[in-house]
């Protein structure tokens, strides 16, 4: 069953519950009111989502088409779903037709009163998802690179399910009698999963039962080099973990990232019920493991979203991370593990082999060196422990909690993978580096 069908079934199930609870006299009027209220709610969520995304530096709905870049991937341009009421617009009457809509395409907004008149004002037929039999965005077939990418329907974003909070805050309510898929994994597949994929940072938050459910729901995908795994602008269907190979990511034609074994991608559209934020292309032959949207939302959504939100606040107090993009910060948040040390407890000891890097979330610590005593004091937003990881050398100093100390730790592989862009700055500023 396609993802749209799931959404449709969820929606009808909820409507049915409301009808049974309220037993309305005028069923059609009740249904009409129900869907209008749902639509309004959805648009408000989308609005909030856009605000949060832009605060984090991500543009969900660029106003203008983005010219094709020199690489070979076609990227759709997006229209704001807020029509003429887009507060981000410098010119509210500009850009009613983009080149991507084609000359005959209807205007994105039909003026009607009300905050979201752009989308509410559109004719009913344009609010329904445009049905294009060639649109395989829901299927788990993966388009080979170079396959023709069809243009987006004129009302592309207006028709997306974009609720963040309703399902996010109470996912169980919306998932009904959800049962995770159980794949018939061979013992060879299970052992590969346990030795690599299960170590993905996002799975670190799961208890044994949850991890087991996730592992048995994973589906192996072997993809040749140059396969387009995800297309920017599509609806989210799967979350992926890389077992082997490399994947490049493009946003509006610009390469923004590369990921390798142990990394995951494709979570954003599932978390925010939004379209795919980037195009993902296999740059080598790849072995991936795909987790379906509902299992992701049911088991991984809440913990991931909470952790990202929590560290998003903390990262504002860590100047050295300022140069990381919003997405790089999210990935860093996934990998961090909080630990608390009582006053007087050493966290790293001079001469020891180093395995972890630390940010101070709260509390204080002091740095001391053999023969020199205390050489510096550390507090919230400071970090320590990178030298041993960078140089494969013993710890150069001892760091001891001087009050209850909460740290966010990162292991060696996460440190190399996620803090690469700021390593030079860390090197220069590490307080244990004398
Ligand atoms: N800079 C980036 N911005 C957005 N998404 C990215 C970026 N780099 C990698 N990605 C991944 O690309 C995926 C595309 O699908 P999603 O939007 O579901 O989730 C996205 C992320 O997992």
Q: How does this structure look, described?
A:
The protein is an alpha+beta fold. It has two domains: 1-305, Jelly Rolls (Sandwich); 336-429, Jelly Rolls (Sandwich), CATH 2.60.120. The chain is 33% helix and 18% strand. The protein contains 14 helices and 16 strands. The chain has helices at residues 3-22, 27-55, 117-120, 124-127, 165-169, 171-175, 187-195, 208-217, 268-272, 293-315, 326-335, 386-391, 412-418, 423-429, and strands spanning 219-223, 228-230, 238-244, 247-251, 254-259, 264-265, 279-282, 286-292, 337-341, 346-348, 356-362, 365-369, 373-378, 383-384, 398-401, 405-411. It has a four-stranded antiparallel sheet with strand order 1-8-3-6. Strands 2-7-4-5 form a four-stranded antiparallel sheet, with no helix packed on it. Strands 9-16-11-14 form a four-stranded antiparallel sheet. Helix 10 (293-315) packs across helix 11. It is globular, with a radius of gyration of 24 Å. The N and C termini lie far apart (61 Å). 35% of the residues are buried. Mean pLDDT is 74; it is low at 1-5 and 62-174. The structure holds adenosine-3',5'-cyclic-monophosphate. Adenosine-3',5'-cyclic-monophosphate binds at residues 230, 236, 249, 251, 256-257, 265-269, 276-278, 280, 325, 327. InterPro entries: cAMP-dep_PK_reg_su-like, cAMP_dep_PK_reg_su, cAMP_dep_PK_reg_su_I/II_a/b, cNMP-bd_CS, cNMP-bd_dom, cNMP-bd_dom_sf, RmlC-like_jellyroll. Tetramer, composed of 2 regulatory (R) and 2 catalytic (C) subunits. In the presence of cAMP it dissociates into 2 active monomeric C subunits and an R dimer. GO terms for molecular function: cAMP binding; cAMP-dependent protein kinase inhibitor activity; identical protein binding; protein kinase A catalytic subunit binding. Keywords: cAMP, cAMP-binding, Nucleotide-binding, Phosphoprotein, Repeat. Residues 202-317, 320-434 form the Cyclic nucleotide-binding domain.
